[in-house]
Amino acid sequence: MSALTTSRELATKTAADLTLSYALRHLGIAAHMAGNLADEAAELAASAGAAKISEQIAEARSGL
């Protein structure tokens, strides 16, 4: 498990929203660098608090 994934989980458990947004943003950047554009979009949308966008991305993925 990566440090960013661990950070995301701990921030979620402790309701540390600022830390969570940083972890999600950097997970999105890592996904982008790995060529996973759908993962990048989901992480960045989540970091911005865009739950509806995150749900739409998940729905789009399920249709692939």
Structural overview:
With 64 residues, this protein is an all-alpha fold. It has one domain (3-62). Helices cover 81% and strands 0% of the residues. This is ANTAR domain-containing protein.
Distance N to C terminus: 26 Å
What percent of the residues sit in helical stretches (DSSP H or I)?
over 70%
* Mean pLDDT reading: 78
Secondary-structure element order, N to C: HHHH
Q: Label the overall shape.
A: globular
Q: Number of DSSP strands?
A: 0
Structural class: mainly alpha
Major sheet size, sense and barrel closure = none
Helical run tally: 4
Low-confidence stretches: none
> How many structural domains does the protein architecture include?
1
Strand content: under 5%
Radius of gyration: 12 Å
Protein name: ANTAR domain-containing protein
Organism: Kribbella antiqua
Give descriptors for this structure.
64 residues, ANTAR domain-containing protein, mainly alpha
Describe, in short, the structure shown:
With 64 residues, the protein is mainly α. Helices cover 81% and strands 0% of the residues.
Helices and strands, with pairings:
Blueprint: H1 3-14, H2 17-33, H3 37-47, H4 51-62
Helix pairs in contact: 1-2, 2-3, 3-4
Protein name: ANTAR domain-containing protein
Organism: Kribbella antiqua
